[in-house]
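Take a careful look at the protein record below. Let me know whether the C-alpha coordinates fit the sequence:
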Amino acid sequence: MMQTQMIVYLAGKIGISKRQAKSTLDELNELVTRQLKKEGSLRLAGFGVFRKRKLKARMGRNPATGEPIKIPARTGLRFTPAKALKDSVLGAG
Protein backbone atom coordinates (compact mmCIF):
# COMPACT_ATOMS: atom_id res chain seq x y z
CA MET A 1 0.00 0.00 0.00
CA MET A 2 1.35 3.40 -0.97
CA GLN A 3 1.04 6.52 1.18
CA THR A 4 -1.64 8.03 -1.07
CA GLN A 5 -3.69 4.83 -0.81
CA MET A 6 -3.31 4.91 2.97
CA ILE A 7 -4.48 8.54 3.05
CA VAL A 8 -7.59 7.73 1.00
CA TYR A 9 -8.35 4.69 3.19
CA LEU A 10 -7.95 6.61 6.46
CA ALA A 11 -10.01 9.55 5.22
CA GLY A 12 -12.88 7.25 4.26
CA LYS A 13 -12.65 4.98 7.31
CA ILE A 14 -12.47 7.75 9.92
CA GLY A 15 -14.56 10.31 8.07
CA ILE A 16 -11.94 13.05 7.78
CA SER A 17 -10.58 14.96 4.81
CA LYS A 18 -7.62 13.66 2.81
CA ARG A 19 -5.67 16.70 3.96
CA GLN A 20 -6.33 15.82 7.62
CA ALA A 21 -5.38 12.18 6.99
CA LYS A 22 -2.11 13.25 5.33
CA SER A 23 -1.37 15.63 8.19
CA THR A 24 -2.00 12.82 10.70
CA LEU A 25 0.34 10.43 8.88
CA ASP A 26 3.01 13.14 8.59
CA GLU A 27 2.76 13.83 12.33
CA LEU A 28 2.99 10.11 13.14
CA ASN A 29 6.11 9.86 10.98
CA GLU A 30 7.61 12.87 12.78
CA LEU A 31 6.78 11.37 16.19
CA VAL A 32 8.41 8.02 15.33
CA THR A 33 11.50 9.80 13.97
CA ARG A 34 11.85 12.04 17.06
CA GLN A 35 11.40 9.12 19.45
CA LEU A 36 13.96 6.94 17.66
CA LYS A 37 16.50 9.79 17.63
CA LYS A 38 15.90 10.56 21.31
CA GLU A 39 15.41 7.14 22.92
CA GLY A 40 16.59 4.67 20.27
CA SER A 41 13.38 2.63 20.36
CA LEU A 42 9.62 2.91 20.06
CA ARG A 43 7.16 0.24 21.22
CA LEU A 44 3.62 0.21 19.85
CA ALA A 45 1.50 -2.31 21.77
CA GLY A 46 0.04 -4.97 19.50
CA PHE A 47 2.09 -3.71 16.54
CA GLY A 48 5.78 -4.05 17.33
CA VAL A 49 9.04 -2.38 18.29
CA PHE A 50 11.23 -0.08 16.20
CA ARG A 51 14.88 0.00 17.34
CA LYS A 52 18.08 1.71 16.31
CA ARG A 53 21.00 -0.69 16.20
CA LYS A 54 24.69 -0.38 15.52
CA LEU A 55 25.99 -2.40 12.60
CA LYS A 56 29.67 -3.37 12.67
CA ALA A 57 32.10 -2.66 9.87
CA ARG A 58 32.47 -5.62 7.54
CA MET A 59 34.02 -6.74 4.31
CA GLY A 60 31.87 -6.85 1.20
CA ARG A 61 32.39 -7.27 -2.52
CA ASN A 62 31.86 -4.83 -5.37
CA PRO A 63 29.30 -6.66 -7.55
CA ALA A 64 30.58 -5.05 -10.75
CA THR A 65 34.28 -5.86 -10.30
CA GLY A 66 34.33 -8.58 -7.65
CA GLU A 67 36.86 -6.48 -5.73
CA PRO A 68 36.70 -6.73 -1.91
CA ILE A 69 35.59 -3.50 -0.23
CA LYS A 70 35.29 -2.40 3.38
CA ILE A 71 31.77 -1.44 4.44
CA PRO A 72 31.99 1.03 7.35
CA ALA A 73 30.13 0.73 10.65
CA ARG A 74 26.78 2.50 10.69
CA THR A 75 23.51 2.79 12.55
CA GLY A 76 20.52 0.93 11.13
CA LEU A 77 16.87 0.43 12.02
CA ARG A 78 15.12 -2.79 12.92
CA PHE A 79 11.42 -3.56 13.33
CA THR A 80 10.27 -6.54 15.38
CA PRO A 81 6.56 -7.29 14.96
CA ALA A 82 4.46 -8.01 18.05
CA LYS A 83 3.11 -11.53 18.49
CA ALA A 84 -0.44 -10.24 17.94
CA LEU A 85 0.54 -8.75 14.56
CA LYS A 86 2.42 -11.88 13.49
CA ASP A 87 -0.50 -14.11 14.50
CA SER A 88 -3.06 -11.99 12.65
CA VAL A 89 -0.97 -11.86 9.46
CA LEU A 90 0.49 -15.38 9.43
CA GLY A 91 -2.16 -17.21 11.42
CA ALA A 92 -1.68 -18.58 14.91
CA GLY A 93 0.26 -21.80 15.33
In short: Helices lie at 3-14, 18-39, 83-90.
